[in-house]
Specification:
The protein has twelve helices and twelve strands. The chain is α/β, with parallel strands linked by helices. It has two domains: about 150 residues, Rossmann fold; about 160 residues, Rossmann fold. About 30% of the residues lie in helices and about 15% in strands. A six-stranded mixed sheet has the order 1-4-3-2-5-6, sandwiched between helices. The protein has a six-stranded parallel sheet with strand order 9-8-7-10-11-12, with helices on both faces. Helix 6 crosses helix 7 and helix 6 packs across helix 12. It starts with a strand and ends with a helix.
Length: about 350
């Protein structure tokens, strides 16, 4: 089993009787999903300082988890999309505590129960009536949802306690405006020609602009950079994810981050970097940054639309609300953050 760990701790497949008790947290999702539960990880660490916290998450997020300073080891998971993993490669004694921060239904509940933890914290569900958790709410912000779960079980968790430390390494583009045109779903991608138009306007205003790309987003980032008149070296990533320490340093040292509703928006929030976040199919009331002057949300619903989920978050085409956001609105929002 491939396991990423903090220094000084044995990998999970070497756990033996007499080792520190284990707390297993399931959050097998993406970058933004992990960063939204930093308050929960911090609450667990604070309330159980003598336990090892093991995070079940995709292996590519190991560096992110370790950077929070709140996770002792990462148990790598594999699953298509946002599905619950079919199994967890857990070895050694059962966890003392398992915490389901992944979902609200039987797949994630039963996945953890198969490991026979002494205690399981999860939301109540009619198909797993033996779990006495709180009721799930569809209208709740993601940060508050998981903190409320812990509070129900007597663990104090503050949804505003979401910051992570900036890395010690220097930014590759200090003071730049970071433009991130990618997103996991087409419905959350503002058109690339509009990102390019914003980048051109920012350059004319004297701003240094760089473009970031996750794995598989290289062509999109290069198109935005080329159309904006940026040199090829302005693109960071694309063939693979930008190494997290470098990405973290870039965002921490940025004047502003322009991004859709995706993981980089949550990273800017965690690092306290000014951001302009473009929302489409899902309302910022569910996934947006906390209310703060550093973070500007652009969101264009219309009367009569569902106020929280008016569009399909997993559709292939840009959402109608996202398309209502104009280039001029975005340029004004970014430049106001750069003054």
């Amino acid at each position: 089993m491939s396991v990423h760990k903090r220094a000084g701790h044995p990998p999970a497949d070497q756990v033996r009787a007499g080792s520190r008790p284990q707390v297993l947290v399931l959050r097998a999702l993406g970058l933004g999903d992990l960063l939204t539960v930093v308050p929960c990880l911090r609450a667990l660490r604070r309330s159980m300082p003598d336990r090892d916290i093991v995070l079940a998450a995709p292996g590519r997020l190991a560096a992110v988890a370790v950077a929070t300073g709140l996770v002792d080891r990462v148990l790598p998971t594999t699953a298509p999309g946002r599905e619950v993993p079919a199994a967890l490669d857990w070895h050694g004694p059962p966890p003392e505590l398992a915490v389901d921060l992944h979902g609200n239904g039987p797949p994630s509940h039963l996945l953890l129960q198969r490991l026979r933890p002494r205690r399981l914290l999860a939301y109540r569900h009619v198909q797993t009536p033996h779990i006495p958790g709180p009721e799930w709410r569809d209208d709740e912000h993601e940060r508050e949802r998981w903190c409320r779960l812990l509070r129900w079980y007597g663990i104090e968790a503050d949804p505003a306690d979401l910051s992570i430390a900036a890395p010690a390494c220097a930014s590759p583009a200090p003071g730049a405006v970071v433009v991130h045109p990618g997103a996991d779903a087409g419905s959350r991608r503002w058109p690339p020609e509009r990102f390019a138009a914003v980048a051109r306007a920012l350059r004319r205003a004297g701003e240094r602009v760089v473009v970031t790309a996750g794995a598989g987003e290289g062509a999109l980032a290069r198109r935005v950079a080329e159309d904006a008149g940026l040199p090829p070296e302005a693109v960071n990533g694309g063939c693979g994810d930008v190494p997290f320490p470098e990405l973290c340093a870039l965002v921490a040292g940025a004047r502003c981050v322009l991004v859709g509703d995706t993981g980089l928006a949550h990273l800017a929030t965690a690092l306290g970097t000014p951001s302009v976040v473009l929302f489409g199919p899902v309302a910022p009331a569910l996934w947006g940054p906390p209310p703060h002057a550093k973070h500007r949300v652009l969101w264009c619903p219309r009367a009569g639309e569902d106020p929280l989920r008016p569009g399909d978050a997993h559709a292939s085409l840009p959402d109608a609300r996202l398309l209502r956001i104009t280039v001029g609105q975005v340029v004004e929002a970014v430049l106001s953050h750069c003054t």
